Amino acid sequence: MYKPVIGLEIHAQLKTKSKMFCSCVNNPEVREPNIYVCPICLGHPGALPVINKEAVIKVLQSGKALNCELRDVSRFDRKNYFYPDLPKGYQISQDRRPLCFNGYLEVEGRRIRVNRIHLEEDTGRLVHDEKAGHSLVDFNRSGVPLMELVTEADIRSADEARKFAEELRLIFRYLGVSGANMDQGQMRVEVNISLSHMEGRKGTRVEIKNLNSFRAVYHATEYEIKRQSALIEKGERVVQETRGWNDKKEETFSQRDKEGVHDYRYFPEPDLPPLNLKKEPFNKDKVQLEVELPQKKRKRFHE
Ligand SMILES: [Zn+2]
Fold first, then answer.
1. Domain containing 54: what range?
2. What is the pLDDT of residue 290?
3. How far is the CA of 25 from the centre of ligand 1 (A)?
């Protein structure tokens, strides 16, 4: 028999007044394209980023709510890749020193460990106009603060994956850190899944990207457990790859081979100082939650 081994990567847009590294309004849902842009979030040469304090505090609050350790000194790194919605040619993210690490969230009595929560910037958005035969880029979302949470592979079923994501959305909303509306792309879920042999032999990991509803998280995970089991039963190999989810057909499909894994050539962001979280203005000891978390509230109501 085989045991599903599931981990999640969840991105959530932070609800802040301005973008991550400039003073543009953070409102990626606005209809009119390219109105909240400036030389910094358009990646003009020589433009310098400034850290948004509100975004850092919101990630620290999320870390606290998820029982994480908060870093003493954190840092931003450059993640280098080329894509038309990324004008700088790199994304400012956090590689080695994420703000929060080693946390957990209890879901129906089971503890799911949180490996890390880090802060980065969102990319622009491509709009494909198939009739006109070209694509347009909207940079209103470029540079919007994005929190990425990565769990350990502690999840064991599609139902648990969905419940974890739902519980996380509830916490984000209680804290007021993110609107976390999945249909608006404010929260995006990626499922990593492999089937491990009961004797401990590890399976091959498949990533399912861009799941934008809880229903999709559940069904894509279910589908992938069945697909991988069937392959193994037949004596075939599960390919390590990234897969997408077709909501209409209710099946996952191959997107690209993972054989040539991306090399993002991370290095410390030279335009930003390290973040000392033991001192103002990012003093981690002064971070307050200011709300009663849903788990605590449930317990109190129950009692
Ligand atoms: Zn800007």
1. 2-302
2. 86
3. 8
